[in-house]
Amino acid sequence: MPKNEASIGWLMERLRVTARAIDGDFSARFRLQKAAFLLRHLGVEPFTELEYGLYIHGPYSSTLAQWYYNAKPGGEADLEPDVLAKLDWFMDHKDSWIELASAIMALKETPAGISDGDLPGALRVSKPWVTDPMAEKVLRDLRSQNIIQ
């Protein structure tokens, strides 16, 4: 069975994020945070080491921020094709979808979990722009890729 490992440099290269973009582009940092969150969720090392807290734009890891401020694009990854496909599918969405999807994943993976019916209301606490149909659609999208149950 192959290892399930990647590096932050590899992820930066995969997302086409430069070291310069890290310093000046919120979207670059946002996308790295959310891609790493997905990889953590999928069990990819070293991202499984990261702890995330709630943040206005979805889950955020200060440790990951340290990693990417000190990294250079490039590196290795030993990932199964299914993991790569899920990463590419996830990151192929607009930032607003990614923000909502990562927030849903974070709420669903809490020890108590959250019911589908309570999800839209819980999301609106930090994202007042979320509608019930929007949350339901993103939830269906994530389930269609077997990212969450």
Can you describe this structure in just a few lines?
The protein has 149 residues and is mostly helical.
Helix content: 40-55%
Give the terminus-to-terminus CA distance.
Answer: 24 Å
Percentage of residues in DSSP E strands = under 5%
**What's the total number of strands?**
2
Q: What's the overall geometry? A: globular
Can you describe this structure?
- The chain is mostly helical and 149 residues long.
- It contains eight helices and two strands.
- The protein has helices spanning 8-14, 19-24, 26-41, 62-69, 81-91, 95-108, 119-124, 132-144; strands at 5-6, 77-78.
- A two-stranded antiparallel sheet has the order 1-2.
- The radius of gyration is 15 Å and the shape is globular.
Quick tags:
single chain; 149 residues; mainly alpha; two-stranded antiparallel sheet
SSE layout and pairing:
Layout: E1 5-6, H1 8-14, H2 19-24, H3 26-41, H4 62-69, E2 77-78, H5 81-91, H6 95-108, H7 119-124, H8 132-144
Antiparallel strand pairs: 1-2
Helix pairs in contact: 3-5, 3-6, 6-8
